[in-house]
Design brief:
Largest sheet: 5 strands, antiparallel
Order of helices and strands: HHEEEEEEEEEEEEEEEEEEEEEEEEEE
Strand order of the largest sheet: 1-23-22-21-20
Number of helices: 2
Radius of gyration: 20 Å
Length: about 400
């Protein structure tokens, strides 16, 4: 019975998230339970089952007890013999998409410059076997992060001064298409709020903006609309975002962030994701994770490395949200970890890669069943763009 209970608890880890855990609790996380409308499931504890991270496995990955890793793709190598696609260099932002046959697709950006970037995809069957690999976007530059849409496409973002957002079909049935209405700037990531009919966008610059796109004809039409930039005001002791229209989203005469004198700059916008009316995004130059309540308009900080005596989390980058509302943050360098910030204020390392000191973790994404977690080490153990490695974390049967 004890073994069966442990196995069930481990399965809940990815199915329901990490809320309620007391592992590695730290005061550097600012509790944000009040920012989340739903109360996460905390009826069980995995402390006794998981403990901390175990020593590195054969792939150099430290994991909690009961989990395993496998390398599903390496830059320059063919993931499956039947495919002609060699996995791209510099794998970055990614996401998973459900297939009709019970399988799924994991898409991954390639952060290569000079039109050598794009997006690759791994196709899995319902048993988790890789059955195909292919490109869904080519001839773009520095495809960094992006975001999945509720209607099943991938938004790939170019991190260049003249960068665009491309909407891509994860299954490769149509060619990825530029969506210039989402602005011309150094894009990082995107998150779609279907209920409010907007797309949130981050900008990877030390004085970058935080943006909101409102389509003219409603989602999923991204071909035209109004781009707005955040201006943060103090109201009654709270920080409130007011959205200011951008005069020229195509940046024909000057960069977008220079067109609105009242905009608020954020120090290197990175990953962005939405959970239950709250938009979470990271800024790398000050190592913060922010929470924007889209109902009240309030902006708050839920993690700040500067107030932590010995910060566990540094180099904040890509973000993915668990089903229970835990904010999983991947590190760009730092300790090469993925760390969960729970609504109760705990900070929990769930993955660490050893021997990849000149790399970064990118593209964390759950499969549709939340039983597997995918991510990449962008430069791998050799610390080079051609050394990228993409991993899968799953339960031990």
């Amino acid at each position: 019975m004890k073994m069966e209970r442990q196995q069930e608890l481990r399965r809940k880890f990815l199915r329901m998230g990490l809320s309620g855990l007391g592992l590695f609790a730290a005061g550097s996380v600012i509790p944000y339970k009040s920012s989340i409308g739903k109360t996460p499931d905390s009826s069980f504890s995995l402390i006794e089952t998981f403990g901390g991270l175990l020593p590195p496995d054969e792939n150099g990955v430290m994991l909690p007890h009961g989990f395993r890793s496998r390398i599903v793709a390496r830059s320059g190598e063919n993931p499956v013999p039947s495919s002609k696609y060699k996995w791209h260099d510099s794998p970055d932002g990614g996401a998973c998409f459900e297939a009709d046959d019970g399988g799924w697709v994991y898409v991954s950006n390639s952060e290569r410059p000079n039109k050598a970037g794009g997006v690759g995809a791994l196709r899995f069957n319902s048993s988790g076997e890789i059955i195909d690999a292919y490109s869904i976007l080519q001839n773009t530059s520095l495809n960094c992060a992006g975001g999945p849409t509720p209607w099943g496409t991938w938004l790939s973002c170019e991190e260049t001064p003249n960068g665009l957002v491309y909407e891509c079909d994860p299954f490769g049935n149509t060619i990825g298409k530029a969506m210039p209405a989402l602005g011309v700037f150094k894009h990082e990531a995107a998150a779609v709020d279907l209920e409010r009919q907007v797309v949130y966008l981050t900008e990877d610059l030390p004085d970058g903006g935080f943006y909101r796109f409102r389509p003219d004809h409603g989602l999923p039409d991204l071909t035209s609309g109004k781009l707005e930039v955040a201006s943060v005001l103090e109201e009654g002791g709270r920080k409130i975002i007011r959205w200011i229209p951008v005069p020229d989203s195509q940046a024909r005469e000057k960069p977008i962030r220079e067109q609105v004198p009242g905009y608020t700059s954020f120090r290197g916008g990175e990953g962005v994701a939405i959970y239950d009316d709250v938009v979470y995004f990271a800024t790398k130059h000050d190592n913060r994770v922010w929470a924007y309540d889209s109902v009240s308009g309030e902006l708050s900080v839920i993690y700040d490395a500067e107030i932590a005596k010995n910060p566990e989390l540094t180099g904040v980058d890509n973000i993915v949200i668990s089903p229970a509302g835990d904010v999983l943050v991947a590190e760009d360098s730092g300790s090469m970890q993925i760390i969960a910030l729970t609504p109760k204020g705990s900070l929990i390392p769930i993955v660490q890669i050893v021997g990849h000191d000149r790399s970064e973790i990118a593209g964390p994404a759950f499969d549709p069943s939340f039983q597997r977690l995918y991510f990449s080490s962008q430069r791998g153990s050799i610390g080079d763009n051609k050394g990228g490695m993409t991993f899968e974390i799953s339960l031990i049967d």
